[in-house]
Amino acid sequence: MAEYTSPLLRLLDERGYVHQMTDAAGLDALAAQQVVPGYVGFDATAPSLHVGNLVSIMLLRRLQQSGHKPIVLMGGGTSKVGDPSFKDEARKLLAEETIDNNIAAIRRIFERFLTFGDGPTDAVLVNNADWLDKLEYLPFLRDIGQYFSVNRMLGFDSVKLRLDREQSLSFLEFNYMILQGYDFLELSRRMGCRLQMGGSDQWGNIVNGVDLARRADQTEVFAVTTPLITNSDGSKMGKTVSGAVWLHEDQLPHYDYWQFWRNTDDRDVGNRLRIFTDLPLNEIARLEALEGADINEAKIALANAATAMCRGPEAARVAHETATAVFAGGGAGKGLPTHAIGEGGAINVMDALIALDFVKSKGEARRLIAGGGAKIDGERVADENVSIAVGSEPVKLSAGKKLHGLLIR
Fold first, then answer.
1. What is the full DSSP assignment across 205-252?
2. Which pLDDT tens digit goes with each residue over 129-140?
3. 10-14, 162-166, 199-203, 288-292: which range is least confident on average?
4. How far apart (Å, rounded) are the C-alpha atoms in residues 20 and 200?
5. C-alpha dihedral (228, 230, 234, 240), degrees to nearest 10
6. How many domains is the chain built from?
7. DSSP secondary structure letter of residue 45
8. Residues 48 and 181 in one domain
9. N or C, which end of the chain has less CB nearby within 10 Å?
């Protein structure tokens, strides 16, 4: 580990957040001397963020824990363009009303991780539509466009990979990195922002902003990116068979969120504890050193801490109790995802598996049943045509060892 003087960089370094940094010595000195306003940008392309965004949210949390000021930048303007970084095709363009509704829903997530207010280290949420929507094209080209090199932009991996595959990159998307760089300049001018943070896939976009602030205003600003968080098997964290792991309970039940963390690979537990929880490092060292069946203690600690932070302590407690009932006691557990049966009080097993979002299609359901992976109240389903009758008591439906849900009236 590097030797830093500021609590901010020491914290980021010892917990494994740092992948790339511009002028580490300069940022370290600044953070040791004053409150540093720093931001992360989030596009409002859905009504919830997902686990893939969580590292960036935790960066803002660490910034505040170190005595600095987090700025949550919502991309009300850039969401109208869509970030092309490492995408195979252009994103669907969203209506302004949809973007506004998404921002309102997403704000509730940040309020669980950060303390908002008017104090010097309180978090604030701003929307880049406030300045991007007002830009005039020719003045923007003249005043800002002169500082961007097309040659350099074409060399960024996010663009180069798209072009190398001979996949179309529209002029609209190509402008995204200019707008993101301009965001940094605006935040520097408006709020004295001196730091932009994000994932490693944003490095090119972020460095554009650093260069723009230096060229346009002779202001020194800094950048920090995190490593791509992958599983030990090389897969991207948060990519599951059943889809995205949403942070909002409207998109993913508390139990499923808890279970995602509980299912962490043994080899990844220490890394996840350092990055996604506030547990002390000495306790994390103890937990990740556990072996054999004892490592489950560390996984439960991870699931409880991560769920309590995102969903609240009560959600974590109920999810833990539900898991204990399901796996240890064989019970149903009140925190499981549910599906209400309509008229008739019965449902085909394949339809039930789809309704609980355990599978995406009847073909997938048939394969699950044929492989012996579907169970009703613990009993293996042998026939895909089985009809499940639901009375006054819920019926537990399982897909494999990890997915469980309740059918209710």
1. HHHHHHHHHHHHH----EEEEEPP-B-TTSPBTTEETTEE-BSSTTTS
2. 999 999 999 999
3. 162-166
4. 7
5. -120
6. 3
7. S
8. yes
9. N
User: Distance between CA atoms of 256 and 404, rounded to whole angstroms?
Assistant: 9
What is the domain extent for residue 284?
Answer: 253-328
pLDDT at 393: 67
Could you report the per-residue pLDDT of 220-251, keeping only the tens digit for each? Answer: 999 999 998 888 877 778 766 556 899 999 88
Helix residue ranges per DSSP H, 251-382 = 254-262, 269-276, 281-288, 295-311, 313-323, 349-355, 362-370
| Residue carrying the six token digits 């097309």 | 150
Those residues with Cβ within 8 angstroms of residue 34's Cβ, 6 or more apart along the chain or in another chain = none
CATH number at residue 389: 3.10.290.10
Examine the fold and report which residue of 299, 328, 357 is the final residue of a domain before the chain moves on.
Answer: 328
* CA separation for the pair 409, 396 (Å, rounded): 13
Q: How far is CA 400 from CA 262, 324, 404, in A?
A: 15, 17, 8
Residue 214 has pLDDT above 90, yes or no: yes
Beta bridge partners, 187, equal: none
Q: What is the pTM of this model?
A: 0.80
Cβ atoms of 395 and 388 closer than 8 Å: yes
pLDDT (tens digit per residue) in 253-304: 898 899 899 989 999 999 999 999 999 999 999 999 999 989 999 999 999 9
In a domain, 76, yes or no: yes
